[in-house]
Amino acid sequence: MINKKVENVQAALDGVSDDMTLMLGGFGLSGIPENAIAQLVKLGVTGLTCISNNAGVDDFGLGLLLQKHQIKKMVSSYVGENDEFERQMLSGELDVELIPQGTLAERCRSAQSGFPAIYTPAGYGTEVAEGKETREFDGKMYVLEHAFKADFAFVKAWKGDAAGNLVFKGTARNFNPNMCGAATITVAEVEELVPLGTLNPNHIHIPGIFVQRIFQGERYEKRIEQRTVRSRS
What we know:
- The protein is of the alpha/beta class.
- It is built from six helices and eleven strands.
């Protein structure tokens, strides 16, 4: 069995350079690869195209890369929680491709599965479909959407082993599974890296064949975007 374990985040991001296309898992701040993002900031790489559901918040997640103007283009489905993302988009500083959320997920999954494209009804008759091939199936119109092509995919899981097998926890099982194997190199950071044979095969969400590098992350903050609590009665 191939050992995918690398010692730290620095080794995990070896080969990342300017102008690359990166996938980053997470939904809001849930399940984001915090260590990988922090290392990207340290590396100072620029001209990045980032494929992610959203861009975090102003001072956390991908918002840290936006602050440093390291991202050239965002391919995502949601802007709302990041004022700097909105400002850069409206000012023309940042190229933004907004995609229906389901389409974003399926374009990741089609890349993972080796399919070059998918047909989806989402966006037909809107700006999303402009300039794209459309086709009718059983009386309903569909838009052709191409699979993503990315250099690296960075995902975050709860547990993993040296073979790259991954287990996600709760809502962190969002875009992360679909991005595994959807890029040339998939890097997984995990909260707990366990010995081979520890994970119950029936509980593994992503088999190691979809992962090239894995490491144990450190100091996860796991911030909450909008904390809502019940008032005292």
